[in-house]
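Hey, can you fold this?
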Amino acid sequence: MDIMIAQWMSHGLSRSLLFDETVLTLSASHLVKGAMLVSIMLFVWLWVPSNSQLGKEKAQIRNRTTILAALVASVFGEIFARLLSHYSAFRLRPFLEASLDMQVPERLQLLAPEMIANSSFPSDHAILFFAIATGIYMISRSFGIFAFLYSFIFIALPRIYLGLHYMSDIVIGAAIGIGFSIVGVRLMRNSAILKRTGSWSMSKPEIFYPVFFLFLFQVATMLEDVRAFSQLLKLV
């Protein structure tokens, strides 16, 4: 099934340079990917439904502990994915498979040397952003559905179309992200430390939000700086 979908997607590649370059730009854009989902997350962070029975402050703290738990869970999901990738069979990205002959944009071909060493299974993007969408869904069903649809259309589909991932890479990654987020929220949302952190965002916003911004910046950029600095450890 993976091969069939990849081959079907490859038929559309190279037919329109403008379309392919647009999809590649969307796929590489942190504004379109992480920043958009983080902005939705921040909306529900501050949002209080009109029919809430908890009162404004309690409702906000519950929203915030849910988001924090989902973010923490997504980190564990990423760690699990790295272990899964390390101990499972290596999987070359579809656009690098000679048998598929995918005519991807030249900008993507230039990234081949650094991508050839990284297994495509599972998708880090799917884990992180579907975990965030799940946290949003657990606060607001309507905003959560929008976040899921947005993640699939603007984050997952472009990566399948360009041959960066097989469909199963995305599906398994999304399942890991959703699963870790659900379990994490249920286990951690009522923990003392997250409740204290949620309260701290109200009592000490001048301290909390600068730190939170730095964390969300890394989330929105797929932990690029963390990954880059971690490479230095290999030189030690």
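Oh, and this one too while you're at it.
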Amino acid sequence: MATTVANLDSVIQVMTAEMELTARQDVLMRGLVDVRTFPKHKGSPLDRPKLGKLTAYDLVEGVAITNEQVYIDTDVSVNPTEVGLLTIVTRRMLGRAPSGFEAQIVRENKRAYAEKMEKDLLTLFSGFSVGLSGANAGISVGQFGAYITRVRGASEPGPEPLYAVLHPNHVWDIRSAIMGLTVGSGLVLNTGGIIAPENPNRAMREKSLGSFLGVPTFQSGLIAVDSSDDAYSGIFSKYAIMLYVNEEGSTDRQENARLRGWDLVYTGEYAAAEWVDAYGAYLLADATAPTA
């Protein structure tokens, strides 16, 4: 009788493929907002003031100016808080795990921290005062363009650069329109649709819409969808949202004698807040997953 693998199952070790981390959505908001460093050796919170606008009037020669102008300031208060997570690894487990397993854990801790920061920034979209309240309905190209215009045309216009970050299902609303397609049983040509101004094929392939209606437009699957299948996307100036970082995320490794292992503690400290309300607009719309 031939000797088989089953006969030597104590000698032949189990083989596994290279370890893979569970996929996560990309993070992008930190690169699109106003990032500042929280001052060291100062108390909390930090108040960031902004001076109001003055108004000029027509004058009459020889007549005194009576409309004295007074500067009035407003401020936004930010108070960084700690964010982090703990992973405990035992000495026994590390002795049996593949080489580099601890480094993978540290990498995943960092990814989890970055995703938490991303979600904190994305939730600020719902705080803008101006926006599309189109719950239970999709986003149209016209609505998308209208709120870009409203941010740029406000009495306190949003400074360039402007960005748009949409839920992926909102992106599909835009893509189906710019390709001149309707969504139904498959994709059907719609001659009354809007044709993409530049390269429609690229708009369908790329992860972002590129520069759409003059605004770099991205998608984020980390935008929360509520119980009614609606979600808040956003159009905003870089300076609409501020991110104050007190401590960048980092790992502390400490021996845990009671558990015969090590604590891997990943922590950082930051605060995310709206800076100027008029610099952004929200797009509340249906984000039901498409089926065709």
